[in-house]
Amino acid sequence: MNPLPALAAAASEKATQSGPTLAVSDLRISAKRDRKSVELLRGVSFHVASGETLALVGESGCGKSITSLAVMGLLAPGLSMSGEVALTDAGGRIDLVALSAAERRKLCGRRLGMIFQEPMTSLNPMQRVGDQIAETLTTHGICSRQEAARRAVAMLDRMGIADPGRRALALPHELSGGMRQRVMIAMAMIGEPDLLIADEPTTALDVTVQAQILELIRDLSRERGMATLFISHDLAVVADIADRVAVMYAGEIVETGPIDQVLDAPLHPYTIGLIASRPALSTERRARLSAIFGAVPEPGRRPQGCAFHPRCSLAKPGLCDVGDVPLKRFDGRDVRCLRVGERVQA
Amino acid sequence: MLRLLASRIAQVIPVLFVMSLAVFALTDLLPGDPTITVLGENATPQQREVLRKEMGLDRPAPLRYLDWMGRTLSGDLGRSLRTREPVTAMIAARLPVTVELTILSMLVASLIGIPLGIAAALKPNSWIDFAVSVTALAGMALPFFWAGILLIRLFSIQLGWLPPSGYVPIWVDPVRNLTLMVLPSLTVGGAMAGLIMRQTRSAMLQTLGQDFIRTARAKGVPERTVVVRHGLRSALLPVVTVIGLQSGALIGGAVVTETIFSLPGLGTMIVDGIFQRDFAVIQGALLTVVLAVVVVNLLTDLTYGLLDRRVRLA
Q1: A221, A51 in Cβ contact below 8 A?
Q2: Separation in Å, CA of B127 to nearest CA in chain A
Q3: Which of B44, B77, B127 is nearest to B269 (CA)?
Q4: Which among A116, A135, A171 has the least Cβ separation from residue B211?
């Protein structure tokens, strides 16, 4: 009776046939500020296969959210974008950057689903949550209004919300934070997207609720074989949910690879710093948490050479402060550091 | 919804009490002698004194207020000192004129102001926004009487399209009534449109910047639906407030417009009453205006409840 395993199987087959669901290559985004063009994203490339979860990790302002908005086509006006964002399924390959706004709109909600960070402000405060979930279906003419309402209730049920028929009639402010986020997820999932983007979906929630929501997202992406792009600043959360991770710094990916490898043996000094600055239960109470000294460069004030070198204890004058640093393949990952080889040998 | 209605009505009662005091005090303090209105300039002081006693004007003001209030509450506003016509009958004849003018003006103002406000908000700082804002400012800056006179010059005198003034009740001749109402409603509505436009623009800009608008776009909702279904509904709350407040002001402000276009409404009734020191008329008309403003505000609050389910529950 359960069609879901079959669906997942079909999805993974699909992936092996035609490569990754989402492939972003050389994505560049710049803003005009005081008549100067400021690069916010400097050539970001990654891919996510169906059934796989890729986490984009970094401090605020590193470009992770703007990357997700660019994929959805929700960038604020005034930003210019170049590069390629390719969405692939059995039907073929579409470059989202080349699409018109109207064509792109047809994909949003249906092929691309997005969960936002703040479930209170991201839901329309004056519309019943059931209607907001059903709107994804009615907007694309997937089914009738009644059927959409019925499916919305079924979706709330799948999200683990008790008494879904009554909750569907509630307004967002009548629900708890965790329930609102379940509503957001239901809204993103009801169109059965190929790609789910979750932008800090648990940041605004209590820790216990966080775990439930993460589990829900993980289960859903498995049972539906979706590709998931998970954005977070929280390495603990990422360790829980991601298959692979891409660490971003100042608009670039600085290290990317399988989650266990990156967390257990980080290669880039920035990743090392991020992991070291994370408190653990085993940390002694009086031990100081280590912090990365200095601050993230503002867009437009990016230093020459490696963007991280002013904050890096391993930076070598004459090497790290000149020229661009390419992503280098090393030990099964890609790392953007010129000294990565020597350090490991030493 | 019923609870909301009940609590709002309870708030209205003290307001009406204070306003009735003010209306009474104002007319009482108005310089001039009502006995002149009744007896004319040539009556002797003795005749006046007799009349004053008869009208109860020799009694202390608080007693007269209680007296007046008692009669008012039982629905008797007295008679005009000049024509001996019952004031309630005069109000019944004139209130529909003012109400019609107010409704039509707000309709004109909303039909101009809301779409232009949305247009300006969709393209902030564009030439559309600029043009709309300048027009709105000009509309707000023009005094009623001047705009009214300009409109009469253009449409009645030069083009001859519309009658300059006069009134026919809508139930007598609807077409003629509406033709006569075009210029007054344009005068008042045009001036109000600017304010509504500014309010719509800023409310819409604020709403369109909110997270839930981005969510709607992420669902693939077409831009037009995003603006109307998700944006406008939230943005309308402050606009409705302005429309409500303005309608209140319009009923009071009818004095000027009705005088220009010689409409027999409450405004002209007040003006005539003041010139003739016809106290019962002034008091009755002012009290009606106060009541109308209060009712409009009540309706505004109830509209809130209709637009925003959260208010209804509160």
Answers
A1: yes
A2: 17
A3: B77
A4: A116
Taking contacts as CB-CB distances below 8 angstroms, the residues of chain B near A191 are 219-220
Residue carrying structure tokens 């102001």: B113
The length of chain B, given as a count of residues: 314
SS3 B223: helix
Extract the residue ranges of chain A whose pLDDT is less than 70.
1-19, 279-290, 343-346
Q: Which has the closest alpha carbon to A63: A231, A228, A301, A180?
A: A231
- Dist. CA B271–CA B257, nearest whole Å: 12
Neighbours of B298 (CB within 10 A): 16
Neighbours of A217 (CB within 10 A): 25
Rounded to the nearest 5 percent, the helix, strand and coil shares of chain B are 80, 0, 20
User: Which residues of chain B register pLDDT less than 70?
Assistant: 253, 311-314
Contact pairs from chain A to chain B, CB under 8 Å: 74
Dist CA A100 CA A2 (whole Å): 38
ipTM of the shown complex: 0.84
Q: What is the pLDDT of residues A110-144, one digit of tens each?
A: 999 999 988 889 999 989 999 999 999 999 998 99
Span B223-248, pLDDT tens digits = 899 998 899 988 888 898 888 888 88
Sequence-distant (6+) residues with CB within 8 A of B76 are B88
Q: Is the CB of A116 less than 8 angstroms away from the CB of B217?
A: no
- The DSSP H or E segment spanning A228 is strand A227-232
Q: Quick one: CA dihedral A58, A63, A65, A68, positive or negative?
A: negative
Residue A285 confidence (pLDDT): 63
Q: Which residues of A touch B214 (CB under 8 A)?
A: 74, 116, 122
Whole-structure pTM value:
0.78
- Contact (CB<8Å) B220/A173: no
Given an 8 Å threshold on Cβ–Cβ distance, is A139 in contact with B225?
A: yes
| Strand ranges, E, within B127-190 | none
Residue linked to tokens 């509309």: B139
Class level of CATH domain B94-313: mainly alpha
**Residue in chain B lying closest to A199 (CA):** B215
Nearest to A251 by CA among A7, A27, A24: A27
Residue located via tokens 């880039």: A268
What's the alpha-carbon Rg for chain A, to the nearest Å? 21
Assigned token pair, A225 = 């074989």
Residue A112 DSSP SS3 = strand
Residues of A in contact with B225 (CB under 8 A): 139
Q: With CB atoms and an 8 Å threshold, state whether B218 touches A72.
A: yes
How far apart (Å, rounded) are the C-alpha atoms in residues B38 and B35? 5
Angle B41-B45-B50 (CA atoms, 0-180°, nearest 5)? 105
pLDDT for the residue A10: 47
What's the pLDDT at A23? 92
Q: A126–B234: do the CB atoms touch at under 8 Å?
A: yes
Residue labelled with tokens 């002149």: B36
Q: Chain B residue closest to A128 (CA)? A: B309
What's residue A247's pLDDT? 94
Q: Where are the domains of chain B?
A: 2-73, 94-313
| Closest Cβ opposite residue A121 in set B212, B225, B307 | B212
